[in-house]
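Subject: sequence -> structure tokens, single chain

Hey, anyone have a minute? Need the predicted structure for the following. Not urgent.
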Amino acid sequence: MRSDMISLRWLLPVLVLGALCGCAGVPAAAPKVSTDVSAFDIGVFRFASDRGCRGAGSIRKESAERVEAVCGCVLDTLDATLDTAGWKDLVVASRQYPQDASQWKTYIPAVAACAGAKPHSHDGPPLLGTWEWTMRETGCKERYEFLPGGIAKVQSGQEFTENKYVISESTEDSGRYRMAFVIDKTNGGKDCTDVQQGSPAGEASVVYIEFASDRHTLAICFTPGGSQCIGPLQRVRQ
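Reply:
Had a minute. Here:
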């Protein structure tokens, strides 16, 4: 009973966010059966559930290290437990909560098993490597390759850019990393927003990077609070 109570305190925000949110500013669809659930839907649900887990940790006033350890463990446990069909069923159940509470049977054991997860030490943001996501509405793919030395290569539709970036070594109060981004070179192709000439060289922006607790998924947000974001992006290789 005690382990269940521990789980419920972590889970309520997880269930609410998983049921009501898209992720990173992307409106949630409402698949009624598992055959309507796409890989994108699973990624969005997975990221939103992790947001809920981290929100629960914040409500409980847990340390950021413990929150990341527990929530990362939950994602790893679910990945080890569920195949694609299982994730699809979980997405459908979450959208029909509270009428369908079957997702509790999946979440409670995962959270209970991770209650004693130990924090890991990390040296700065785990950004280096290649990340991809595909837009739900158009199927257009974006690919970000972050290299050492503050160089990033980005493909968005037909647009290819080389960029310079600087990212903070630690998160801001929101739990996101602040990153300054400047386009250095561009081929002028049409990007995934359907802009004919894409973004011009010299264009600068500031974004906020939100990592999921397992550090293999991220969202790129345009506000510090994370209300307008793209993603989730999946790590391709490191």
